[in-house]
Amino acid sequence: MTATIREQIVNLLIQSIQAAQEAGNLPPMSLPPVIVERSRRPEHGDYSTSLCLRLAHQAGMSPMDLARTLIAHLPPAPFIGRAEAVHPGYINFWLDEGWLARQVDVILEAGESFGNISVGQGQRVQVEFVSANPTGPITIGSARNAVLGDGLASVLQAAGYQVEREYYVNDAGSQVRKFGESVFARYAQALGENAPFPEDGYHGHYVVELGEQLATEAGRRYLEMDRREAVRAIAPWAVDRMVKRIRQDLADLGVHFDVWRHERHFYEEGLFDLALNVLRERGYVVEYDDAIWFRHPDLEKDAVLIRSPKVVPEPSERPTYLASDVAYLWDKLVRRGFDRAIYIWGADHHGDVPRVRAAAKALGLDPDRAVFILYQLVTLWRGGEEVRMSKRSGEFITLRDLLDEVGPDPIRFMLISRTADAPIDFDLDLAVEQSERNPVYYVQYAHARIASILRYAQEQGRRIDEPADLSLLRHLSELALIRKMLELPEVIEQAAAKLSPHFLPYYAQELATAFHAFYRDCRVVSSDPAEEELTRARLRLVRAAKTVLARVLHLMGMSAPERM
């Protein structure tokens, strides 16, 4: 599908205005954006527009007369059943019921691609998400980042964008050295040496495990080296092990990346030097206090790019996070040429956004090509009480803890169910409850119920893929289900426009509700020979509902179970 129903109605209205002007019934006018919205109440039709209220003054007629004029010049369209002018000047549109019924076959023919639209027109978009430091396991906060980024990437792909998912590995700077020192201490302790643990080191049982693993693999090799050289050798080994663990945890969540981009490469490949020279040539670099600073009129004060050697003796640790951000921005928008780069960051990084946007301007780039989504925290609850640490390790809650307790589907559904700027309360008890109270269960159960209906039909000797007379689908619940299925392209359009996949779980629940109502009101497989054609039509409708519900679940990165 290349255009939504809403877009097609917008085009009809524009054609109507043009036809009325050609007929001399309307004067030339400056046309504002034509807004068509889905009606909130069934008695107001399927769609509605207030365009006539905004154009009446230019047209020199009342909104109601203008609405009647536009309706009189509407070109015929098979999907419009009727249009009606409503006081004080709205136009309400009803979809044709025969056309609605025929869309069942359109959905079945589209299959897993149903809902796809072309609004993106092939623009190249990079979504960089998670990007947690490789100095520890993925936490519950970064799990929200993962679900949000992956869901958004799927939505943008469905909307016609070329999307690349990327994980940025922060493997340069002082935090990697501190991680290496922490692992070295645990490694030495595993070999019976009383090595001091760095004051600002990384604590946690995972560091102990890495130390023990290194002791098994390397024996006393690193104890026989200069400690500083040993740390330099151990740090990349430890980072590599953590990245493998992060990859596995994210894969178990159903999150996969096209590219894993390493921060250290910016310096090894000279990207930072290149970007710094551009900033310097454009007059945005100043030097004082033995440091290199970024100065821009959009910023209240200068920001450090390269720290003073008097403050940070080690050259590799002098570049700041902003220095890497500048190189990464150049890498994304210039070197690799993405049309847009979407960053998904925790809300605590809000102060970094103006600096990166200012850097984009300084580099001669459109700052709107760099888009930032900031997400709020996740709070876990069990038995009405907040869960602050893992029972297993006595430390912070990790993605692995959550995967082991509730599985990937509840995590993905719950963590995508709110806008990024709203905090999430994750109820662990509710996530595993098998009842209608649990939205994850409610939605997946609808898909399993559909699968069971189709299995039953096959057990009765029926072919579930037989052609059928779809004009028999006239029951209000049948048509309501079809209407709800046809909303998917608009849900994808809205989610892509607002860069917010939270519309998907809400739509999934509404679709499941529409199916459950249909199942309650309409017997699908009838033994009455007089209802044979109706049974065939309803089986096609059920198959279409299964297709759409599975599509939504897959867009959210969830499974579509056949049995529950």
What is the CATH top level name of the domain at 436-555? Mainly Alpha
Question: What's the CATH architecture name of the domain at 436-555?
Answer: Orthogonal Bundle
Helix proportion: 40-55%
Classify the secondary structure makeup into a structural class: alpha/beta
Number of helices: 20
* Overall average residue pLDDT: 95
CATH topology category name of the domain at 436-555: Isoleucyl-tRNA Synthetase, Domain 1
Task: Report Rg.
Answer: 29 Å
Strand order of the largest sheet: 7-6-5-11-12
- Gap between N and C termini: 32 Å
| Strand residue content | 5-15%
List the helices and strands and how they pair.
Layout: H1 5-22, E1 36-38, E2 47-49, H2 51-59, H3 63-72, E3 80-86, E4 90-95, H4 97-110, E5 124-128, H5 140-158, E6 162-169, H6 174-190, H7 205-218, H8 227-252, E7 259-262, H9 264-268, H10 271-281, E8 285-288, E9 291-294, E10 303-306, H11 321-335, E11 340-346, H12 352-362, E12 370-375, E13 378-382, E14 385-387, H13 399-406, H14 408-415, E15 424-427, H15 428-432, H16 439-459, H17 476-485, H18 488-498, H19 503-521, H20 532-555
Parallel strand pairs: 5-6, 5-11, 6-7, 11-12, 13-15
Antiparallel strand pairs: 1-2, 2-4, 3-4, 8-9, 9-10, 13-14
